[in-house]
Amino acid sequence: MLKIGDSVEFLKDGTKGIIMEVHDNLYHIIWEDHFSSWEYGETLRKMEAYPSK
Hints:
mainly beta; DUF4926 domain-containing protein; 5-stranded antiparallel beta sheet
Protein backbone atom coordinates (compact mmCIF):
# COMPACT_ATOMS: atom_id res chain seq x y z
CA MET A 1 0.00 0.00 0.00
CA LEU A 2 1.18 3.51 -0.80
CA LYS A 3 1.54 6.12 1.93
CA ILE A 4 2.34 9.81 2.39
CA GLY A 5 5.95 10.56 1.48
CA ASP A 6 6.35 7.66 -0.96
CA SER A 7 8.04 8.39 -4.28
CA VAL A 8 5.91 7.13 -7.17
CA GLU A 9 5.95 6.90 -10.94
CA PHE A 10 2.85 7.55 -13.07
CA LEU A 11 2.46 4.44 -15.24
CA LYS A 12 1.00 6.27 -18.26
CA ASP A 13 4.01 8.52 -18.93
CA GLY A 14 6.74 7.79 -16.37
CA THR A 15 6.44 11.10 -14.52
CA LYS A 16 7.79 10.96 -10.97
CA GLY A 17 6.26 12.50 -7.86
CA ILE A 18 5.68 12.30 -4.12
CA ILE A 19 2.44 11.40 -2.32
CA MET A 20 1.13 14.25 -0.19
CA GLU A 21 -2.36 13.01 0.84
CA VAL A 22 -4.28 9.74 0.76
CA HIS A 23 -8.07 9.22 0.65
CA ASP A 24 -8.97 5.55 0.18
CA ASN A 25 -7.59 4.68 -3.29
CA LEU A 26 -7.01 8.33 -4.34
CA TYR A 27 -3.56 9.83 -3.95
CA HIS A 28 -2.66 13.52 -4.07
CA ILE A 29 0.68 13.73 -5.88
CA ILE A 30 3.11 16.62 -6.29
CA TRP A 31 4.89 15.89 -9.58
CA GLU A 32 8.48 16.70 -10.52
CA ASP A 33 7.28 19.72 -12.55
CA HIS A 34 5.48 21.05 -9.39
CA PHE A 35 2.03 20.26 -10.85
CA SER A 36 -0.30 18.41 -8.48
CA SER A 37 -3.14 15.99 -9.16
CA TRP A 38 -5.26 13.25 -7.60
CA GLU A 39 -4.64 9.79 -9.08
CA TYR A 40 -5.96 6.28 -8.49
CA GLY A 41 -3.58 3.75 -6.98
CA GLU A 42 -3.70 1.52 -10.06
CA THR A 43 -2.04 4.27 -12.12
CA LEU A 44 0.96 4.55 -9.77
CA ARG A 45 4.05 2.45 -9.08
CA LYS A 46 6.07 2.91 -5.91
CA MET A 47 9.70 3.71 -6.60
CA GLU A 48 12.05 1.77 -4.37
CA ALA A 49 14.67 3.73 -2.50
CA TYR A 50 18.29 3.00 -3.29
CA PRO A 51 20.33 1.69 -0.36
CA SER A 52 22.56 4.32 1.24
CA LYS A 53 26.33 3.87 0.99
